[in-house]
Structure formats: structure tokens, C-alpha cells
Design brief:
mainly beta; Methylamine Dehydrogenase, Chain H; Lipocalin; 3 domains; four-stranded antiparallel beta sheet; 1 helix; disordered N terminus
Length: 376
């Protein structure tokens, strides 16, 4: 009898263990347990004495540029429906990939759940969301504000133009594939790339197409408009220079890997970082190569120009300064953290958001590096 009782308890214990495991699986699939943190590669945007960036915890964060103090944060969450265990719906954090745009008293940003937000820059209060109900496909690129509108692209292949004050839709334009690029406005024209291998020029007022340019590979990078020319990188390993007026090809330059980042231009020279681990200095008019700089790991982060120097981050965490006067390169720092987010600069300070969700401020005149502690 004792042996039978022991066997009965053993079988019961195994049954309970299986039920417990099934319960954990059910809770995880229903959203009752958080199994992973969101990620992203949001850069920082400086406006007056405040920095705005999307954290890799799925929060829009405002920081004081002087003290580094966190002024406010807004978590971006999506309700997840209850699963088979009838667990109540629980919010899950949503990744932020695009760099916030700031205009007037509002901050604009889209998240990977496909929602666009307008948030007051002083208190972090929600002003409006788009769409009012539901969501779009994931938003990877950033927003841009001009002409009283907010422009942003979505993975549904559409460019959206919204009224900046109300969030009401003004127009939309359909491309042939996902959009990961951030739009650029120059005058009354919007330029944006799509994974359908095309660069589009649209009228910013009504979304009508002015022209399109067909590359040989998908376009995920953000365009640079400089001296009536649009410079854009592609997954076909080419950097293209396209006439901003009619979309005709001026020149193209081939590297050994994809151009993912937005180039910068200074004094007639275009500097383009590439996933082949090099930064290319090309004549803006002809595309002739002036120099190349080997940073020994892919360049996934868009560079910035500060006081005659082009600041570049390698994916492995090294920060470099290229002197545009003599085309000499100097390492500024080794942060030893992966860098994917675009660099940003304001008042001689370069801001670097790393994969470990740390924000560094590098003072260019002195070389001093400050770490912002904006996480809880």
C-alpha cells in the first residue's frame, strides 16, 4: 500500500509539473509575462536645453542637456489580447527606431507598433495619436516636420502627411514596398527611399509625384539633399547622386557592401559611411574618390558634421573625427559598445546612443566625454 501511495504521489507530482509548464507557456504567449525587452536605434534630438530620444526600453525620454537629469519619460505600449488562460490583457513595451522630431512645443515620433505620437515637449503630455484607432504597419524611420505638417513613412509602403497641430491626415502616397527611410524636405519637395528600389520626389503640399528614380537594390537609407542633388545609398552597394529637379542620374559610386547610413556633405565633398567598414570622401559634383578611411567595422550609424570635421562611429563602438581640411582621421574614443543609432550634434557636442542604452555626450572642443544616466 505504501508503494502504491508513493507511485500515486509521484504521478501527481509529474502531472502538476506539466501543468505548471503549460501555464507558463500560456502566460507568456498571452502577454501576462514579459519575455523580452524591445530594442531600437533612435538617435537623440537636441532642442534648446533639452534632449529627446527613444530608449531601448520603449520609452520617449526628455533629458536636460546640462545636468543630464531626466525631465520626463513616456512609455510606448501596445495592449496584447488575452490568451487561452483568460489572462487579462497586459501592455507590452514597443520599440522606437526613429529619431524624434521637434517643432514648436511638440515632439513627434513613431513606434514599431505603427502609431505616430505628438507629445508636449515641456511635460510629456500626449497631444494626439495617429491613427485614432488601430495602428499602421511598423514604423522604422523618423518623422520630419515642415510646412505645418508631419511626414513619416511606414512598413505598409506609404508616406503619410499629417496636420502637425491636430494629427489629421492631409495625404498619403503608396510606394511598392516597405519604407524604412526618414523623409527629407527641401523647399516644397519631399524625398524618400523605399525597399522597392526607388527614390521618390513628392510635392510636400499634396503628395503628388514629381519623379522617381530606380536603383538596382532596395533603399533604406535617408537621403541627403545638397547643391540641388540628392545623395542616397542602396543595398546594391552603390551611392547615387540624382538631380533634385528631374531625377536623372548624375553619377554612382560602388563600394564593397551596402550603404545604410545618410551621408553628409561639407565644402563640395560627400562623406558616406558603408557597411564594408569604410568612409568614402567623394567629390560632390563628379563622384570621384578623394579618400577612403578604414574604421575596421561596419558603419551603421549616420555621421554628422561639426566645425569642419566629420564625426563617424563604427559599429564596434569607436568614434572618429575626419578633418575635412587635410582628410586626416583621428580616433576620439572607444566606447566599447555597439553603435547603430544615428549620431546627432548641437552646439559643438556630439551625442551617441549605444546598444547598451547609454547616451554619451562628446564635447568636440575639449574631447571630454559625459555619460547620461537616463534609465531607472
Amino acid at each position: 500500500m505504501f508503494i502504491n501511495l508513493f507511485k500515486h504521489k509521484l504521478i501527481l507530482g509529474k502531472v502538476l509539473l506539466v501543468l505548471f509548464i503549460l501555464l507558463l507557456i500560456g502566460l507568456a504567449s498571452s502577454g501576462c509575462l514579459r519575455t523580452a525587452q524591445p530594442r531600437g536605434w533612435s538617435g537623440a534630438t537636441a532642442a534648446d536645453d533639452t534632449l529627446f530620444l527613444g530608449s531601448m526600453e520603449g520609452k520617449l525620454v526628455a533629458l536636460n542637456t546640462s545636468s543630464g537629469a531626466r525631465l520626463w519619460e513616456v512609455p510606448f505600449e501596445a495592449a496584447k489580447p488575452a490568451g487561452g488562460f483568460a489572462c487579462a490583457a497586459s501592455p507590452t513595451a514597443v520599440a522606437i527606431y526613429g529619431t524624434p522630431a521637434v517643432d514648436g512645443d511638440l515632439v513627434y515620433v513613431g513606434d514599431y507598433n505603427g502609431v505616430i505620437y505628438a507629445i508636449s515637449r515641456d511635460k510629456g503630455a500626449l497631444r494626439w495619436v495617429y491613427p485614432r484607432m488601430g495602428n499602421l504597419e511598423p514604423i522604422v524611420g523618423g518623422a520630419v516636420v515642415a510646412l505645418g505638417k508631419v511626414y513619416i513613412g511606414s512598413s505598409d509602403g506609404k508616406v503619410y502627411a499629417l496636420d502637425a497641430e491636430t494629427g489629421d491626415e492631409e495625404w498619403e502616397f503608396q510606394t511598392g514596398d516597405k519604407i524604412w527611410s526618414t523623409p527629407v524636405i527641401d523647399g516644397d519637395t519631399l524625398y524618400i527611399g523605399s525597399l522597392d528600389k526607388k527614390l521618390y520626389a513628392l510635392m510636400a503640399t499634396d503628395g503628388s509625384k514629381r519623379w522617381e528614380f530606380k536603383a538596382e537594390g532596395a533603399i533604406a537609407s535617408t537621403p541627403l539633399v545638397y547643391d540641388n542633388t540628392v545623395y542616397i545609398g542602396s543595398f546594391d552597394r552603390y551611392l547615387y547622386a540624382v538631380d533634385a529637379t528631374d531625377g536623372s542620374l548624375r553619377w554612382k559610386f560602388q563600394a564593397e557592401n551596402w550603404f545604410w547610413t545618410r551621408p553628409v556633405a561639407y565644402n563640395g565633398v560627400v562623406y558616406a559611411g558603408c557597411l564594408d567598414g569604410k568612409v568614402y570622401a567623394l567629390k560632390a559634383k563628379s563622384g570621384a574618390k578623394i579618400a577612403e578611411f578604414d574604421v575596421e567595422s561596419p558603419v551603421s550609424s549616420s555621421p554628422v558634421s561639426v566645425d569642419g570635421k566629420v564625426i563617424v562611429a563604427s559599429e564596434e563602438g569607436r568614434l572618429y573625427a575626419i578633418d575635412t581640411g587635410n582628410n586626416q582621421i583621428k580616433q576620439l574614443a572607444n566606447l566599447e559598445e555597439k553603435i547603430y543609432a544615428p549620431l546627432s550634434a548641437s552646439q559643438g557636442v556630439v551625442y551617441v546612443h549605444t546598444e547598451k542604452d547609454v547616451l554619451y555626450a562628446v564635447d568636440m572642443p575639449t574631447g571630454a566625454i559625459r555619460e547620461f544616466q537616463f534609465k531607472e
